[in-house]
Amino acid sequence: MDEVPGSLGTSASFALRLGQTLFSTASLFFMCLAIDFYSYTAFCFLVTIMGLVIPWSMTLSLVDVYCVFVRCPSRQPGIMTIIIVGDWVLSFLSLAAASSTAGVAQLLLTPGSAALLCPLKHCNRYPLSAAMAFLSWFLLFASCLFNIWLLPKL
Amino acid sequence: MDEVPGSLGTSASFALRLGQTLFSTASLFFMCLAIDFYSYTAFCFLVTIMGLVIPWSMTLSLVDVYCVFVRCPSRQPGIMTIIIVGDWVLSFLSLAAASSTAGVAQLLLTPGSAALLCPLKHCNRYPLSAAMAFLSWFLLFASCLFNIWLLPKL
Known about the structure:
2 copies of one chain form a homodimer. By secondary structure, chain A is mostly helical. Chain A has one domain (11-153). The first copy, chain A, is 77% helix and 0% strand. In chain A, helix 2 (41-69) runs antiparallel to helix 3 and helix 3 (77-109) runs antiparallel to helix 5 (125-150). The longest helix of chain A is centred in the middle third of the chain and has 33 residues, at 77-109. The mean pLDDT of chain A is 85. Chains A, B: Belongs to the Casparian strip membrane proteins (CASP) family. Chains A, B: This is CASP-like protein.
């Protein structure tokens, strides 16, 4: 079986999954540092999606570690399809969450409205959180593409 | 050559392109009806992306009409790849634009801030515009998938 770098069970895939976990945890961290995130729907959406991405990426990174260091079970097309669909859906959701967070953060940081909506100087963390979510989306999308590339070879 | 319904040059593809053109025009229309859209970055982004989607979908719908009623030139893998990449990029951009518009529109329609940010009762049009942009994204993504399906058969 050909090894596609970045597909399930390779060290490149482990690096991608680790990056996803780190960036989505950072995004969640920056968002939850700002105490009043739950008053904005977009921010709650981001927290929900990052709360889905973190366990997903962490589980798959453990699978990669097991595969690299112990032994790799045969990849079945059914399981690969589930992983691809999961990556696909989560990458769309994290792009949507990152975009809406970026939109709202930009609005909150506009000089005219900042004094009204952001009195506590917490708002500089929102764009950081959105940026981390964008990076997480990018890595999820890369994982998805590498796994799709592998699928016809199974 | 197999005909994949929805791929370039079929009547289903024409229907998809027509839907994209209609929904993105509607999204642009609802956004531009509200006079002060240019004070929000997310709304300017939506207007830019919809301004790209409309000519793209309209051109490809004309190609489909020519293909259905006159004669279909042979599909070259290079041209199909350009169309797929274009659909792909535009579908990501329109998802991002629709999400950020939805996030900002929701913030503007929140009862607490509505009186400050939306004094002119224009704001009900923003969610409509975001909904149209989501529909346009969905159809663009469908076109992209159908064309990818066709690519290995060329």
